[in-house]
């Protein structure tokens, strides 16, 4: 393994680190190999908890705001404000005022994940064709039915876009979670004296793969939840759809 | 609570000291320690301005290239999309075997991050130029190049500037992580035991947010000056 990867230089050492366990620089502790799997799992767990809570909070609020077509200033500017707050500052603020640990980090990540989902849900519902909503009402649907059977399905691709943005963001930020006392793949990155450069770079590789994988998976999900009629319409309008990128919001971390 | 207070009294050197030892929010400490933040702040401003400027040049050139050759849009968005998705912290470390530690590494990673945002906005802006405006330009005898610089780019400016605003605000946030690449910045004020020191969090965090808002206003102001016709329309 060592010899075949030698031509990659430090990258080869980092790849070797990801797959093979060895003793730490300071001695005594086994690092690398299966430990990376555990750290990756910690990071995924932290991100999933934050994202799950954010979806549960932001989607209903966004649906309601979009349905009543009010408070657009709030729904849009929450994203802009969210973008202006650096993730490190957000994490530090929570650590200083609430304390260290998994729960507080998850809370900070949740706050980070809410704005893109909320704004995208609002925009998704808001841009549903008014004629479509009127037709639904004409068929005798009440408010809640309109939301559930017309507005939500048509807004789903945009909502999924927001979730995708937030997911990549949260995974990126979960990397610095060890600064605030929660374990993640950031641990080898932040502790060079134990892990050495190959541990740092190896962990950075896993973080990058994790973020890209989440992006690709949620991109596929986004395409899967796009109603067929909307796909056809989009194809007609732009000639070629841009692989879902148009529906994507902007990442903050 | 009483016990804690007593302990602080023993260790506290002065009135301000007890607050600092409590990791509290201490206006006195802040006013006498503001100079600690000057250098990191300037480093952060430098990183953000250079990264967004370089990103704008590269993404703008790519967008102009793709404007005539539509088939390039897909591949460019694909590649810049990956650069955008890779967390900047990971990018700082992945670049180190190639470019070492320092400002260059940090700038490359931050530039890579701005490309998708700016490219997408420039492309959308250019595509949104009304066909009538272009026809009018052609009627005046403009060549393709003249049409681009005198009609299409000016009319796309609001969208282009919107991209720059998003890029600058996000880059301020990411540049707080640049100290991991050895490039300094306000981020280094957060690490270590200082992360629970409220005074420090408020000042360093506040400076980041203020910088983001200030850059946003500067670009907004530039947009007002560069596109006087949009003001006339709304007035």
Task: Provide a descriptive summary of the structure in words.
The complex is a heterodimer of chains A (253) and B (235). Helices cover 73% and strands 2% of the residues of chain A. Chain A has 253 residues and is mainly α. Chain A has a two-stranded antiparallel ribbon. Chain B has 235 residues and is mainly alpha-helical. Chain B has a single domain (40-226), classed as MetI-like (MetI-like fold). Chain B has twelve helices and no strands. The longest helix of chain B has 32 residues, at 144-175. Chain B starts with a helix and ends with a helix. At the A-B interface, α3, α4, α7 and α9 of A face α5, α6, α10 and α11 of B.
Please trace the helix and strand order of chain B, writing H or E for each element. HHHHHHHHHHHH
Task: Give a short account of the largest sheet of chain B.
Answer: none
End-to-end C-alpha gap of chain B: 60 Å
| CATH third-tier fold name of chain B | MetI-like fold
């Amino acid at each position: 393994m060592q010899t075949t990867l030698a031509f990659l230089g430090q990258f080869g050492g980092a790849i070797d680190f990801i797959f093979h366990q060895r003793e730490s620089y300071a001695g005594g502790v086994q690092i690398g190999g299966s430990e990376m799997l555990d750290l990756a799992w910690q990071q995924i767990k932290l991100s999933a908890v934050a994202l799950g809570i954010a979806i549960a909070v932001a989607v209903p609020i966004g649906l309601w705001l979009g349905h009543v077509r009010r408070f657009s200033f709030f729904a849009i500017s929450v994203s802009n404000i969210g973008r202006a707050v650096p993730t490190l500052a957000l994490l530090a603020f929570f650590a200083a005022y609430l304390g260290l640990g998994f729960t507080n980090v998850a809370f900070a990540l949740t706050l980070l994940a809410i704005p893109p989902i909320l704004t995208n849900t609002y925009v998704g519902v808001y841009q549903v064709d008014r004629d479509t909503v009127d037709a639904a009402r004409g068929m005798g649907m009440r408010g809640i039915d309109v939301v559930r059977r017309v507005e939500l399905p048509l807004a789903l691709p945009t909502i999924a876009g927001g979730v995708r943005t937030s997911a990549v963001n949260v995974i990126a930020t979960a990397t610095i979670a060890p600064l605030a006392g929660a374990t993640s793949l950031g641990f080898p990155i932040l502790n060079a004296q134990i892990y050495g450069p190959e541990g740092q770079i190896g962990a950075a590789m896993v973080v990058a793969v994790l973020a890209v994988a989440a992006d690709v998976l949620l991109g596929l999900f986004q395409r899967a939840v796009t109603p067929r009629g909307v796909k056809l319409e989009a194809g007609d309008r732009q000639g070629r759809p841009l692989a879902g990128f148009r529906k994507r919001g902007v990442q903050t971390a | 609570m009483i016990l804690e207070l007593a302990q602080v009294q023993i260790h506290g050197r002065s009135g301000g000291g007890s607050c600092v030892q409590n990791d509290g929010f201490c206006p006195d400490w802040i006013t006498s320690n503001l100079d600690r933040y000057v250098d990191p702040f300037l480093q952060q401003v430098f990183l953000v301005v250079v990264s967004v400027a370089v990103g704008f040049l590269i993404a703008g050139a790519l967008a102009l290239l793709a404007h005539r050759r539509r088939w390039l849009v897909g591949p460019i968005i694909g590649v810049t999309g990956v650069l955008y998705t890779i967390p900047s912290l990971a990018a700082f470390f992945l670049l180190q075997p190639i470019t070492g530690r320092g400002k260059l590494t940090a700038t490359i990673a931050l530039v890579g991050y701005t490309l998708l945002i700016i490219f997408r906005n420039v492309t959308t802006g250019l595509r949104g130029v009304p066909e009538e405006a272009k026809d009018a330009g052609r009627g005046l005898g403009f060549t393709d190049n003249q049409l681009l610089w005198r009609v299409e780019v000016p009319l796309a400016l609001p969208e282009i500037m919107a991209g720059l605003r998003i890029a600058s605000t996000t880059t301020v946030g990411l540049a707080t992580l640049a100290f991991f690449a050895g490039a300094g910045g306000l981020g280094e004020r957060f690490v270590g035991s200082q992360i629970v020191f409220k005074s420090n969090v408020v000042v360093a965090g506040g400076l980041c947010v203020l910088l983001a808002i200030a850059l946003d206003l500067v670009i907004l102001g530039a947009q007002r000056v560069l596109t006087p016709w949009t003001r006339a329309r709304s007035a």
